[in-house]
Amino acid sequence: MMFTTSWDDGYADDTIIADLLEKYGCTGTFYICPKQQHGNVMLRTEQVRAISIRHEMGAHTIEHPHLTQVTKEVARSEIVRSKEWVEQQTGKPCTLFCYPYGDTNEQVAHLVQEAGFAGARTVEQFAFQSDGPFYLPTSLHVFPFPLRPVLNRRCVDPLRRAKPHLQRLNIPLYKWRGWLPLAKALFTHAYETNQPWFHLWGHSAEVKKMRMEHVLDVFLQFVSTHKDVEHAPNSAVLHA
Ligand SMILES: [Zn+2]
After folding, report:
1. Over the stretch 164-200, which tens digit does the pLDDT of each residue have?
2. Which of 102, 128, 165, 226 could disulfide-pair with 123, CB 3.0 to 4.6 Å?
């Protein structure tokens, strides 16, 4: 099974995530965007370069808009310019894209393909195989579970969203008590049922704000104890 991770928005805390991934031989795909969000410090060019030597970098637009809610021309420009921006930052070809808020449709996916990307990630969770290279889902978001953090009132209750998936996957109820037991149970499910991959996804600034560095460390350590897990960037799982 392949183990892949991705990290959105280009926060300066991505450097901490990159180091943590390396500690356990894991790899990441970092979808960076120049727009400052939620008052967080963003990566500087030299930090992007340093991460890009060891990990994969993807594009995530310039202004972080909902791509289905802007005109086709604006969407095209956001997509094309973000590819150029990432390539300027890293000095390497950029082949992957991530839809802000996971917001996409057939037209947006087509624009991404037309811009020369090989694939694009959504924010779908509880998946262990691809829905096509331009609809790459994830397995789990690094986010407090089962309760919604008080700080983030806009977010849908994580348990309500996860419940039908966890029932479908037969994840026992006692594993729903926190993010770490849930992450371990989902990984074990994927590993034991020979799924093509497990895809962990998050935002470095959120991991820090929600104090999830430790559980993330423990989870990556848990993954590293499994035999025959191949650490792969997002580009390697697009067709699996
Ligand atoms: Zn984003």
Report:
1. 999 999 999 889 889 999 999 999 999 999 999 999 9
2. 102
For residue 232 the two structure tokens come to: 């792969």
DSSP for 156-189? PPHHHHHHHHHHHTT--GGGGGSHHHHHHHHHHH
User: What's the gap in Å between 142 CA and the centre of ligand 1?
Assistant: 14
Q: How far apart are CA 179 and CA 164, in angstroms?
A: 17
166 CA from centroid of ligand 1 (Å): 25
pTM > 0.90:
yes
How many angstroms is it from 126 CA to the middle of ligand 1? 19
Range of the domain at 218: 2-236
Give the number of domains in the chain.
1
Residue 227: give its domain's CATH number. 3.20.20.370
Please tell me the distance between residue 11's alpha carbon and the centre of ligand 1 in angstroms: 10
CA of 31 to the centre of ligand 1 (A): 8
**Residues measured by CB to lie within 5 Å of ligand 1, the ion:** 8-9, 100
- Distance (Å) from CA 91 to ligand 1 centroid: 22
Cβ atoms within 10 A of the Cβ of 215, count? Answer: 19
Bridge pairing between strands 230-231 and 56-59: unpaired
pLDDT in tens, 20-68: 999 999 999 999 999 999 999 999 999 999 999 999 999 999 999 999 9
pLDDT at residue 147, as a whole number: 78
Ligand 1 centroid to Cα of residue 67, in Å, is 12
Please tell me the least confidently modeled range out of 3-7, 89-93, 154-158.
Answer: 154-158
